[in-house]
Input
Amino acid sequence: FEVCRKIRAHPQRGRVPVLMLTGETALEKKTEGIEAGADNYLTKPIDSAELILWVEALLRRSSGDYAGVPGMSAGELTIDPDTRWVTSEGKPVSGLTDKEYRLLLELFRARPKEVSREDLIERLWGGSRTSNTLEFHVNTLRKKLGAQSASRLVTVRGVGYRLE
Output
């Protein structure tokens, strides 16, 4: 978990896809792995063909490189895709998982338009998750951003999310 956190914190290597493959099946361990920044957490035993599918999906999703995209801001919330630096209310936002960071980046890129739940799930997980997974990530992202910035992440009923 610590190695994953260090990868995510590194300015140049923070975008490296991370897949955890482990025998630990407890929900607490899965939660810790995802919160540490893993893109996926798979448990053994796993069929080698399924593992290859997961790796291919992860590589396909990570190929969307945002390098060179200029820094963006929405009021007191800023993001710099080159450095993966996020600030809210003048303070650095720490502890963002890769999914939370990518979710925020997708919303910034679509601004001022909303992004459907289905599109976000497809972009972040390759379509392999439920909307509850997305809602969980949105809620934890809001908590990490602080009250003023979190209010900019708007739920559009029946559609998805928008960054104002």
Summary: The chain is about 45% helix and 20% strand. The radius of gyration is 16 Å. Confidence is low (pLDDT under 50) at residues 65-69.
